[in-house]
Design brief:
single chain; mainly alpha; 71% helix
Length: 117
């Protein structure tokens, strides 16, 4: 049985042609990903502009307060314990009494501490 002849290898060999094809595909994927990301960003910008324009038309204080609550939920609020508040208060009193160091004095003390044997 005679096997059919395989087609001639492209000039420069199969590897070179494959590498060119793979590079071309990678470039297209990168371009597609860039366009996809770009369109998502543009959509977010367009949505923000739309929302701002609509909010500017609202005159109802109750609706604006509700919107503020929704927006404020995205902000992180730290609730301090009584002990933390007391510690801050004590520190403020120490500062008022001058029982603290300025930055230059602290730098000197830090340098002394580093060089202590």
């Amino acid at each position: 049985m005679v096997e059919p002849e395989s087609p001639p290898a492209p000039e420069g060999g199969v590897c070179k042609s494959l590498k060119k094809l793979i590079l071309k595909i990678k470039k297209q994927k990168i371009l597609c990903r860039f366009v996809e990301i770009n369109s998502i960003v543009m959509t977010a910008i367009a949505l923000k502009k739309y929302l701002v324009s609509k909010i500017n038309l609202i005159d109802d204080d109750l609706v604006l307060e509700k919107l503020k609550k929704v927006v404020d939920k995205n902000e992180k609020v730290y609730v301090l314990s009584e002990a933390q508040l007391k510690s801050i208060e004590i520190s403020e009193q120490e500062i008022l009494r001058g029982e603290c160091f300025d930055e230059e004095e602290m730098d000197k003390k830090f340098e002394e501490w580093l060089n202590a044997e």
